[in-house]
Amino acid sequence: MIASTRRWFRRNRTTFAVGAGVLGAGYLAGQYVLGKLSEARQRMSDERIAKENLRRRFEQNQEDCTFTVLAILPTATENILDAIPVEQVLEELQKQKAERLARSVGPSEIASSAAPSVTDDDGKSLTSFQSESYVHASQIADGESGNAEAGAGPASQASPKPKKTKAQLWNEMKIGSITRAFTLLYTLSLLTLLTRIQLNLLGRRNYLASVVSLASPPTEQSKISLENHDDDNLEHAYGNDFETNRRYLSFSWWLLHRGCLNLMHKVSAAVKEVFGSLNPREEITLERLSELTLEVRKKVEGATEEERRTCKWLPYLLPSPDQEDYVLQESGMATSTSSPPSPSLRRLIDETSDLIDSPQFTHVLTLLLDAAFSHLVDVKLAQLSYKIPPTSASTARIQEIVGADAKAKVANSLAIFCRQAHSIGSGANNEYLTAIESVRDLEAFAAVVYSSNFEFEAPEGGSLGADSSVTGGDSIAASQRTSWFGGATSESATASVRQSWAGADSGFESAWGKALAKEDGKK
């Protein structure tokens, strides 16, 4: 039996060998396929986690931008309110009114005649200002101290200031109220864009530093630790340097203290030219007020597409190179010895300047200003001055009919301008910032800033793929850039945006549509 079995195995050994080979090959092939599937599954999981991590970082960055704007906006507001003290003009008008009343009636009749006197046009306008506008505390203090000094010093008695007429004071209040409201709208829009650029550039660099850190293989710690002050340190080269970031963010000081005031002079000249001939007692429609507002914007931003594209906003946002040390010193970031900015800081400043001078910046700024001015004129002035009800699906036609015929005195609108200036510059519950941030192109612009130019962040200006230790980070970054634009890299998206600017203005939305795809997906 055993011998026959051996003979049978011997006769069929070839068949068994072939079968064993087939089974072995099948097993190996199956293991290979399972390994590839597991690797692909792991890669997809890593990419999904990486994309979610990038999205989470980006969304957190935008929230940080909002809080940062609300935190530093009051500084610019304080400077603009101090530069245009409308409340002091109002106080002077009230003082002149009291003096005229005292001259027209006897001292004993002032109390009984005060109430009827408010029924005249000037009285109504001043009452409107008292009820509708805020009085800045520092301006009241300055005004009281100024009056006390004027009454105390003999020099002031010898050379009193020439007294302004009522017409001059009303004209000054008209120009001042409108100018400071418009200036604050421009400042808020510019500050929003500047903050988005700054924090998204830093967010991009810090994110890239974390990717490189995770992708780089661990190295053994040397027993002797040596400090490296050169710029070839990975963390410093990628901008993950706390001191560099602080110095870079301090450049917003220029807009808050100098740029907003320089912009104020430009806006004031435009307001004087457009609103100068308008009588405060005159009644105008909301449509006429909107047209005058648009004329001011044309003089500030440019009347044509070409003028708006070539309008230079950089001098209002960043200092010139020869004033950079001055800004660092004023913001408390200057070192004991004056030295030029580090290469990492220099790259940040230069890239910020390039973004501000880009056509994309101008276009997005125009959209932000459209939203801000619309909220001021079409919402606040329409409701508070012209008593037009808020727009809704059921009242849209009613508002259109009422708004076409509704008129209001310019003086009443000036009171709303004066009050809204404080709302525009508020550091809490700012409706205007909410209206600005509802512009979807703002997030698209921030997404491009956050996800573009990864390859320029490598040390020594090299490519991310040049070093084998960073190749993994490069692939992750590339895949995440692709995820943001729905299959297009940031470079191609930016190129398409630039190309769209060469054509019609409507091409901008299509060029940025991919950047907004994720928002539509959420909804």
Automatic annotation (TrEMBL):
Any one Gene Ontology cellular component term annotated for this protein: peroxisomal membrane
Pfam families: Peroxin-3 (PF04882)
GO biological process: protein import into peroxisome membrane
Superkingdom of the source species: Eukaryota
Region (Disordered): 104-126, 142-165
Record-linked InterPro entries: Peroxin-3
GO molecular function per UniProt: protein-macromolecule adaptor activity
Name of the molecule in the record: Peroxin-3
